[in-house]
Write a structure and sequence with these properties.
alpha/beta, 26 strands, 12 helices, homodimer, five-stranded parallel beta sheet
């Protein structure tokens, strides 16, 4: 069996490794337009900030590593066509065009940046920040600069803004929405995150209309105001990459992403799709949504590897569980926001409480802010947390609670661990659940 | 309604507070033999080690705080009798005996220390370490001393041993079993915990036969050897306190603890029991077990408060989820150990893997060792972890996995959060589950 994979991101590479781990015979061939593979874009801020020394350090493997495992990777190669009737793809490298047949085709093409809606007179010192190559260019370009303006970026941009501020740059962040990460965080939480952190000048509801050049400076015009900067980082708005899927005849959904079933099959036989280019089902609403996260890509890849080898697993609906380190604080979220619930007309009850991570009397006490959102029957549908302590595993517990449709009353019975130097005897999650229950009575 | 509570530990006080929070009228009266209330015994090691300044700091509230909430606490008072037919208790303070009727009686009497089996010629400089009063005495007594020997203690003693070693004491720990915390940790994990940590001399399988006095020194005789010390801390073996429950006619189970049903009712009408003095049901085996933990006591108290106020909840079977900080390392566990599975003849598959907490390339990388135990159908029944990073929320996720009877194959589909500075893209729990799955194939 020959499996052809388009894309060498978290989805494509994890799929290849997981197939090979369980099967020696399958022929695995990957195509990618990129030169760099096997790195986590989420680590880019850490290199820009200097916490990790070089971009080379975040590259886990090169193409030879995969070749040793009998996985062929065609770097810097563009797949130009898919013919699903003859089960053949065409691809181009260095202006040479070739074709190849497949038994199973996996589209893991990721997403692509969309151009900003405002005008830019000259792209000099204006960059996007989505991949390692962007990171390298920015790292080089800001060496002799001082003022950096970010416009409406997601996690990687927000984290980078604070990392660069910590390094001594003057950083301004112009957010076009009511708050940062509006899909993840309600206004009260995103505002608190910005207030608690120092070093970056934040402006929300910033309607950027143009960027013009004045000598060596860039002038960003918004809300009848103008600020200048040496370097501008453009918004990181992305859409799923679907041109090849369309060409192959795959159904595309309302979000502009490839439609797949629970086995990760597209509407075309022997073509599968995973990663940022597909739509998934929301666990909360049961309707299609996007989940452009490395963890979703990896999970889909592991499920698909099983399916291609005949051990049929399903990919379950998502709750989009996220954690991120922004300046000196971490935020984490899972499920839906209250704003989203309002938008879709779902009646919810929410609480937002300030509590601790450890025993109240513990001297290195970490503050914790937790917002919990429940349907009117008490089912937990969302949670957002903010803290100067680690939130990663804490939000994982919430991810399980939301996936299991637990009600806040049931949380009283759930077993959490306790020791004063690490935890509270009544877990903050239970404290929030009790507060919701009281509010509902 | 008058609720009389015997015991002012985590169980009794949490019950009282939770009743009062939801009901103003119920008369709540607590009896305790102790002078100190509302502190966490788990914090004693932190005071002995100096991380928390004084024992007063770990006392959250005094009796007046409760009186303000209209909760009466009789300190230093011994309940001497229970007559369940006339629903009356008798109690004694300062040699005065009185009686009081109850509508509902809650026995939250805790547990009591049992005397060691070896001989001791003189109790001078020999102490137990289970409550704040022990802590105060030890803190005072070791001021001008150097050598301390602990014999077979549980978490509080083990944590204290390392805290005192950090403070400069010469500390030896003689463990009578094959490893520390044999009910929580398998030998390979407890051994690793001891090997990784520095500062305490450990000996396992130490069969202590006697402690004798030689001038100002104590000599501890075990396995044909003798070591001397200035101070000895005795084993912390405890049994449930059941004398009043027995007197009231309550059924006592095979573990010597009060038998309760899922509503926390004893076999005698209008008498309930919670906390260390009761037996609970194990989620894994379905059979009775003990769960002498503050978290269990608090959970039982919250459930019972609901039940006494007519909002009937059940107390679910336990998995005994634990976290503890020992020296520079933390361990955490949930479910059963492999040794216990062997003992009860349950066929299991286990793996023990060394991995990371954060991305592999992250410079402040925390190592993580995780042992996972599954039944032969893949259901996760136990987990033990060891790390220099926080394990509290990480074991909570495991607690949910075990309580929900998840199989290791299902864990592939579970959503965990990820960012390189806090987590791995494939969560260690999933890594362990994949390793078990491979071993089972």
């Amino acid at each position: 069996m020959r499996v052809v994979i388009i894309g060498a991101g978290a989805a494509g590479l994890t799929l290849a490794s997981n197939i090979r781990e369980n099967d020696e015979k399958t022929e695995i061939i990957i195509f990618t337009q990129s030169e760099d593979i096997a790195y986590s874009p989420c680590a880019i801020p850490l290199v820009l900030g200097g916490c990790i020394e070089s971009f080379d350090d975040i590259i886990m493997h090169d193409a030879d590593y995969y070749l040793d495992k009998n996985i062929q990777i065609h770097l810097s190669t563009t797949v130009t066509g898919v013919d699903s009737s003859s089960k053949k793809i065409t691809f181009e490298k260095d202006s040479n065009s070739e074709s190849m047949t497949y038994d199973k085709l996996v589209i893991a093409a990721g997403s692509e940046l969309i151009a900003p809606e405002f005008e830019i007179d000259d792209m000099d010192n204006i960059f996007s920040l989505t991949n390692i190559s962007d990171g390298r260019i920015i790292q080089e370009s800001i060496k002799d600069k001082k003022e950096i303006v970010f416009i409406s970026n997601l996690s990687i941009g927000i984290e980078s803004a604070y990392e660069l501020a910590r390094k001594g740059y003057d950083v301004t962040f112009l957010e076009q929405s009511f708050g940062i990460l509006p899909l993840f965080l309600d206004g009260e939480i995103s505002q608190k995150l910005v207030e608690l952190n120092e070093g970056v000048d934040f402006e929300t509801n910033a309607d950027v209309t143009s960027i013009t050049t004045n000598g060596s400076k860039k002038e960003i015009h918004y809300n009848d105001k103008t600020i200048s900067a040496d370097v501008v980082i453009l918004p990181s708005n992305k859409v799923p990459s679907t041109s090849l899927a369309k060409q192959a005849g795959c159904e595309i959904g309302d979000f502009g992403a490839v439609v797949i079933n629970e086995y990760l099959e597209t509407s075309v036989e022997d073509i599968y799709a995973i990663g940022d280019c597909v739509e998934v089902k929301s666990h909360i609403t049961g309707t299609p949504t996007l989940s452009p996260a490395g963890t979703t890509a990896v999970r889909q890849a592991m499920v698909l590897a099983n399916n291609l080898l005949g051990n049929k697993l399903t990919f379950d609906p998502v709750v989009n569980t996220v954690v991120s380190k922004v300046g000196d604080y971490n935020y984490a979220c899972s499920g839906i926001t209250e704003s989203f619930a309002e938008m879709i007309g779902m009646p919810v009850v929410s609480v937002c409480i300030e509590t601790c991570q450890k025993a109240r009397y513990y001297p290195q006490n970490n503050k914790l802010c937790i917002k919990m959102i429940c349907k009117d029957d008490g089912t937990v549908v969302g949670c957002q947390m903010l803290s100067d302590g680690d939130l990663s595993s804490r939000i994982d517990a919430l991810s399980f609670i939301i996936t299991d449709n637990m009600k806040c009353e049931e949380l009283i019975q759930k077993e959490f661990s306790y020791t004063p130097s690490l935890a509270m005897v009544v877990n903050p999650i239970v404290q929030a659940a009790l507060a919701i229950r009281k509010k509902m009575q």
